[in-house]
Write a structure and sequence with these properties.
heterodimer, A: about 200 residues, mainly alpha, B: about 190 residues, about 0% strand
Amino acid sequence: MNSDNFEDYIAAYIDQELSTSEAKVFEDLMQSDQHCKEKFDQTMKLLKNIKAMPKLETSHDFSLILQKRIDSSKRLEISFIDKISNFMTSSKPALNFALSFGAVAVFTFIYLNDLSVFQVDIDSAEGTKKILTKKHIEIDLASGIDDEFFENEDKEIFVNDIEDDTLGKIDEKFKINFKGLIQDVMKEVKNARTFDEGN
Amino acid sequence: MTDYTDEQLILKFQEGDVKSYNEIVERFKDRLLNFVNGYMNDYEVSQNLVQDTFVKVYTHGHSYKEISKFSTWIYTIAGNLAKTELRKLKRRKTYSFSQLSNDEKEFSLDKHSMAMSNNSERTERHQKYHDIREAIPKLNEDFRNIIVLRDIQELSYDEISNITGLAIGTVKSRINRARLKLVEMIS
């Protein structure tokens, strides 16, 4: 230790971490070198002032404000999913019943109106346009129309033309057939009236 | 409750005991305020940061592991928050000063010098305290952190070493240099 590196030992001297011999050298340097003495005194004065500095205290409403901030941070932490989850778990039985009833009503409506909202439309998913063939129409007709209907001239034209038809054209043919069907019904009604009047 | 150690209190809080949390707040609020004020030298800002620290302790209390002292953990949180706030303030100050016109800059500097002259009217003792409080935040971050922990908070070298992640030898040499630097700044 010498006057050049004296400063490095000030903290160790204050903390009493120097050995007896080192402490003796340190004290001798302070007596012999005014600059060393000055540095040590200034450091001691600084520490004294720091220790004497009035300690700051938190305000009286510190805990109250802190509690409010904790409460607001808790509220922020509740995510949207948690809110949904809470709503579902904490809702009242009457609301649960109403929601269930609504769901049943919707499904019943869909079923009764034959709305195929849940059927997978494979053709549209594949991006292909559905073109009905003669075979498709034959199957459809076979399920709902009397054999006699096929004997009509309209029907023969319809079945023969269907092979290269698009869906739009097929719909048009169906409209003609419906018209014929209505005409047939009207005829039947007339016949029935004539029969009643005859009786 | 006052018989429990800090570590026992935080463990009890982790188990859901809110009273333990309140006791932690009581024990640390003033210590942390003085610690953070060493960085900020602004009572209101420091108090807000201490509140932020306690909110973090509340929301992240489960992440404390008993491998370190609780005081080390909480001082680290407060120190990190203070450093982040200081960086924000520096950016804001640079921006706001650069936005002023020349006249406004002169007026601002006049106000600063007026404040300085008002300080000189205080008693000598209070002037010294004021100078120390002003000088500490101006120290290099490595020195400031250590002088606040050692001379204001009076923590042991061991605790400072844990908080800063520095070797004890480095802490000791830095405290020495920080004090000398502070003496130089004040005189």
